[in-house]
Design goal:
2 domains, Spore Coat Polysaccharide Biosynthesis Protein SpsA, Chain A, 7 helices, alpha/beta, UDP N-Acetylglucosamine Acyltransferase, domain 1
Length: 341
């Protein structure tokens, strides 16, 4: 039995990812060949045996996906967060089901190029320590939880989305606690004392309380951090994942390709149909999608879509979208400028 268990907060309604989250919960948004949650669980296989998922919005879809796709890999606990009162509040809901011992908390909309096994190895060498957290230097620190470090790499202060950031080093969305009970105790305290930031109970505030009372927090740098929290990020994340993570070209065995050119890297899921088209590079197609007489680059296309006669670039389509373009017949003389916009 693994010494550590994992906890994935995945209850949010994904307001920033609308309209895609009107019909699909944020952790199941499709990117680079599978849902965000699938990338997270893939990375946890062989690292932990038990995963607790905090569910809320469209909980049935999240639970069904986990059990159907990963039921043979993990023992799952599903814990509801009835009210959306912040990340700290979400984590606290799992207090009575998480096993005593080490705990990995990893956010349900973050994918990391650094594996969890490597994170644990770094955590084990960060002595002395009670917890380790992933860190990343960011361009807009006021949008993140921010840390201050001393000269030895120890975290001496943490603050959630400060107006005047003390540094540009952000909490990257993965946290490793040597004792799960430590963070649950701190979260209990901030809820009992009604300590909120921007109206919510924050995990960052609980960790700051722990640090203030003597817990040692160390950091490890995450170079590749794929934040899937906004629509404008999805195409970039899709590009980077297809480029960085193997395999570079994933085409399902039952995909139908006729008179088409596939330019890697791409991810084409089951029962895709591509006819007389150019697809790629950096394109993900969901299962059952049909592409005909089209050119797609830098796109994410959901499940069951039907796309015909169009050129698409830098685009995201949700599930079951129908797109019909228009072809043109031309006879054009010399030195002619045609602008189709």
């Amino acid at each position: 039995m693994a010494r550590y268990t994992a906890l994935i907060p995945a209850a949010g309604s994904g307001i920033r990812l609308r309209p895609f989250t009107f019909t699909r919960p944020k952790p199941l948004i499709f990117v680079a060949g599978k849902p965000i949650l699938g990338h997270i669980l893939d990375a946890l296989v062989g690292v932990v045996d038990e995963v607790t998922v905090i569910v809320g919005y469209m909980a049935d879809k999240v639970e069904s996906y986990c059990l159907e796709a990963y039921g043979d890999s993990f023992k799952f606990n599903f814990v509801p967060q009835e009210k959306q009162l912040g990340l700290g509040h979400a984590v606290l809901q799992a207090k009575d089901v998480v096993l005593e011992g080490g705990l990995i908390i990893t956010l349900g909309d973050e994918i990391f190029g650094m594996g969890y096994r490597e994170m644990l190895a770094t955590h084990s060498t960060n002595l002395p320590r009670d917890a380790s957290v992933g860190l990343k230097v960011v361009d807009e620190p006021s949008k993140y939880g921010i840390v201050e470090l001393d000269g030895n790499g120890r975290i001496i202060a943490m603050v959630e989305k400060p107006e005047d950031p003390p540094s540009d080093t952000a909490l990257a969305g993965v946290y490793i606690f040597e004792r799960a009970s430590d963070i649950f105790s701190a979260l209990d305290t901030i809820v009992e004392q009604d300590i909120r930031t921007r109206g919510e109970y924050q995990l960052t505030d609980a960790m700051q309380m722990m640090a203030r009372e003597g817990s040692v927090f160390m950091g490890f740098v995450i170079e590749r951090w794929y934040d899937c929290g906004r629509p404008d990020m999805l195409v970039r994340v899709n590009h980077r994942l297809l480029k960085d993570l193997p395999p570079v070209n994933h085409v399902a065995e039952d995909a139908v390709l006729e008179d088409s050119v596939i330019v890697p890297p791409v991810a084409l899921e089951g029962k895709c149909v591509v006819k007389r088209s150019v697809v790629g590079p950096y394109v993900s197609l969901g299962s059952g999608t049909e592409i005909r007489d089209s050119v797609l680059t830098e796109c994410i296309v959901g499940e069951g879509c039907d796309v015909r006669n169009i050129v698409l670039n830098d685009s995201v389509l949700a599930d079951r979208v129908v797109v019909r373009g228009k072809s043109h017949r031309m006879t054009v003389g010399e030195k002619t400028l045609i602008d189709m916009e």
